[in-house]
Amino acid sequence: MTNPTTDTATTDTATTDTATTAESSSGQGRATPGVWPGVLYDDIAAARGFLTGVLGFTETLIVPGENGGVVHGELRWPEGGGVMVGSRSPEAHDGAGAAGREPQWIYVVTADPDAVYDRARAAGATIRQEPHDTDYGSRNVAVADPEGTVWVFGTYPGA
Length: 159
What we know:
By secondary structure, this protein is mainly β. The chain is 14% helix and 38% strand. The longest helix is centred in the N-terminal third of the chain and has 12 residues, at 44-55.
């Protein structure tokens, strides 16, 4: 079906399990991820610096908020997919990610987890798991961001 406000194709996710396609600025279609994890941070500036400068994400959209905060941010992983980030506040997503929360983890598929490890180690990041091979055929490394969210980078693309 066509969305008249954006004139782009959309799909009914209740009846299909295929990836949607969006037009990029070059006019080429690209698959877009169907799941975007969202992470809220107390210090969004430090988080953005770590996620882009150390782990290798690319900022594609930042919507500024009050006092240097971020209402909505999108970071893309160069090998596909992305994550949303924002500033933690009582108003953000009905208080999601309130203080005292348990650390979460996010899995990111990469062809070279050792390169992520090398960048993280060089930056002094907290390494939660050294690079290792798993019983299910993946090579993984786990790195904690400055606020404790664990980012697991591995070669396993899913079943």
